[in-house]
Amino acid sequence: MKSLDSTHAPDLESWVASADSHPDFPVQNLPLGVFEPPGEDARIGVAIGESILDLRAAARAGLLPPSVQRAAHEPLLNALMGLPAAARRALRAAVSGLLTGRAHETLVRPILVEAKGCRLLNPARIGDYTDFYVGINHAVNVGSLFRPDQPLMPNYKYVPIGYHGRASSVRPSGEPVIRPRGQIKPASDAPPVFAPSSKLDYELELGLWVGPGNDLGQTIPIDSALDHFAGACILNDWSARDIQAWEYQPLGPFLGKNFHTTISPWVVTAEALAPFWIAQPPRAADDPRPLPYLSDAEDQAAGALAIDLELSISSARMRAEGLAPQVISRAGADTMYWTVAQIFTHHASGGCNLQPGDLIGTGTLSGKTREAFGSLLEISGNGKQPLAMPSGETRSFLADGDEVVIVARATAPGAASIGFGECRALVLAAPSEP
Ligand code: CA
Fold first, then answer.
1. What pLDDT is recorded for position 275?
2. Which secondary structure element, helix H or strand E, spans residue 87, and what is its range?
3. Which of 19, 111, 113, 323 is deepest in the core (most CB within 10 A)?
4. Of 95, 66, 67, 65, which Cα lies nearest the Cα of 5?
5. Overall pTM surpassing 0.85 (yes/no)
6. Is 113 helix (H, G, I), strand (E, B) or coil?
7. In this predicted structure, what is the pLDDT of residue 380?
8. How far, in Å, is the centroid of ligand 1 from the Cα of 282?
């Protein structure tokens, strides 16, 4: 999973002119996605610079290895994600060869599509979506707002905390998010009202795609957990804090979280991420050791990802005045208290079956300072310190017309840096009451 080969060489160049200097999609990336050219049906593709390689057309032309031939004809990535790592590596090697070897240019150029104008869809049929809570700085910040004496619950450093989310409302970048209505309890002793959320928030997260699954009743050992990891995307777990605050006891998040989740549509594959594994930050000396089923020396040595995420916001007024979006959150995936492998292993540890195309959110990633907080709840201290915007407006939570964009980038010494594309959505007003 973490082995480097010629497809990762930092000096590798593509004959696709826009690829070599592309901030997100140089030939070392080759992310998989599902796209719809104007007026045509959806199919699987690979992003390369400002173009998309039509993978179904490549399969039809006999340009792909036999082991991926069938899966490449599918309209979604589930079958490809479920292939063993060897087949996925063979696909990457073949695509890299097609896009670098001048000899292939004449054959391949006709099946390259200009990305501009194509619609990007959810890359897989998401059977299940689970959201974890492994960003420890976020957990401490949010805990401090509501439980200053004990920000972290006693289980946090033993259990990778998560909850089952809603798969049907996961949508690709570009689709607007509609402000939800819900039950909201005023701070006073008044009874709850049913009204539009006035505490709509974003959450800066990484999404993890499940590759080969495990059978019901079977578990995923920590030392082979990454065999089940297909790749990553950016994830925005939209949250209505006021609805959440009233409904969450005793069973946890529900309608405050399930109205919409935005993902970046390209799957940056586990193979592409090979150069970007770094050591998991050591646990504090007085933290408990992970239980044996979550402990693996190799995972601790190289189980964290060198990925940085950046979130910007622009209000309707900022766009009207021609002001640039303001970056308000910057955090790295090295703020995860639990690794990708520990998340996968824990999820399956009771025999729960993960399936190809399942989506797992890491939980909000926050750094230690306000500039690095991954939600407005943290930045504004639940509304007590509104954020100043360049237009003179302020924000404690999101306003209608705000557009939130997250980008992410993986970097490592000696490797070509790769990006994730965009995770973008515009906030629309709650529909008027029926
Ligand atoms: Ca979340």
1. 98
2. helix 85-100
3. 19
4. 95
5. yes
6. strand
7. 98
8. 24
For residue 14, report the distance from its CA to the centre of ligand 1, in Å.
Answer: 37
pLDDT at 434: 64
The residues whose Cβ lies within 5 A of ligand 1, an ion, are 131, 203, 237
Report CA(364)–ligand 1 centroid distance (Å). 5
CB 397 within 8 A of CB 380: yes
> DSSP character for 135?
B
**Active-site residue, 138 included:** yes
* Nearest CA among 312, 131, 107, 121 for reference residue 206: 131
Which CATH code for domain 6-121? Answer: 2.30.30.230
What does the pLDDT look like over 306-316, one tens digit per residue?
999 999 999 99
**Given this structure, which CATH class describes domain 131-428?**
alpha beta
R_g over Cα of the chain = 22
The residue ranges of the chain whose pLDDT is under 70 are 1, 434
Ranges assigned E (strand) in 37-159:
43-48, 51-54, 112-114, 119-121, 129-132
Tracing tokens 């989740």 back to the chain, one arrives at 261
Predicted confidence at residue 189, as pLDDT, reads: 86
Distances in whole angstroms, Cα of residue 21 to Cα of each of 32, 74, 308, 418: 19, 31, 19, 11
Q: What is the pLDDT of residues 146-202, one digit of tens each?
A: 999 999 999 999 999 999 999 999 999 999 999 999 999 987 889 999 999 999 999
371 CA distance to ligand 1 middle (Å): 19
Query: What residues does each domain of the chain span?
Result: 6-121, 131-428
Give the active site residue among 8, 22, 138, 347.
138
Contacts by residues 376-385 (CB-CB < 8 Å, ≥ 24 positions apart):
376/201, 376/202, 377/142, 377/145, 377/199, 377/201, 377/239, 377/241, 378/138, 378/141, 378/142, 378/145, 379/328, 379/329, 381/145, 382/145, 382/241, 383/199
